[in-house]
Amino acid sequence: SSIVNNQRPSSRVSQAKKSRILLINAAAAAFYEKCLVSRPSAGIARTHLRARGFLPATIKAFGVGYAPDAYFGSRQESQIWGQGSLVEYLTERGFTTADILDAGLATVLKKDLKENQPDEHPNSEMQTSPSSLIDRFRGRLVVPIMDESGSQVLGFGGRILEDSTDNRAGSSSSTSSSFPQPKYLN
After folding, report:
1. Mean local confidence (pLDDT), 148-175
2. What phi and psi, each to the nearest 5 degrees, are found at residue 120?
3. Which long-range contacts (CB under 8 A, 24 or more apart) does 13-19 make?
4. Which of 40, 91, 124, 156 is the most exposed place for a label (fewest CB within 10 A)?
5. Each residue of 119-152: pLDDT tens digit?
């Protein structure tokens, strides 16, 4: 009997976490869809879709969206770190950094990880501020991965666009890497 009682709280936590991830995924899907139709920076994504023969009805039916390159897309001094990003959108809607990390929608910038705890997992209970997170999908077409019924977003797949900032030669971003970005990211 005590084993059953010990398992119930953990299963409730697990179920609560799953429910929270489904909520955050739905919010992220709405964000990406809105970005595709409303952001000037999504012009390359819309052009790519037209060139591939996608009709607006098909794009809408599959929930195709665009993940802006909010962190590295603008070099203007007036640009605020993270402004226009998914992380900003989600935190404004009450999701915590733990929620965002648990859903896999962002990662912790390496420079912001505690140096004295290199083995600590970023999703642990440490306090991480939203400014320490960077969107996982940047400068990509994003397609939600749905459950069998098509009612819940389980995850995302993203395709980088050829002219995205992360792939440009000579990028002056101090956080850019010499490694090319993967074409597809799930």
Report:
1. 70
2. -70, 135
3. 17/102
4. 40
5. 444 444 446 777 788 899 999 999 999 999 999 9
Instruction: Count the Cβ atoms, other than its own, within 10 Å of residue 160.
Output: 21
Tell me how far apart the alpha carbons of residues 33 and 67 are, in angstroms, rounded to a whole number: 9
Query: Which of 62-71, 102-111, 133-142 is least confident?
Result: 102-111
Give the span between the Cα atoms of 153 and 169, in whole angstroms. 34
Give me the numbers of helices (H) and strands (E) for the chain, helices first please.
Answer: 5, 6
Q: Amino acid letter at 85?
A: S
Contact 101, 134 (CB under 8 A): no
Q: What is the largest CA-CA distance in the chain?
A: 64
- Which neighbouring-strand residues pair with 141? 66, 159
Where does 76-161 have alpha helices with state H? Answer: 86-92, 97-102
Phi, psi of 159 (to 5 degrees): -120, 125
- Read off the DSSP letter of residue 79: P
- 39 and 66 Cβ atoms separated by less than 8 Å: yes
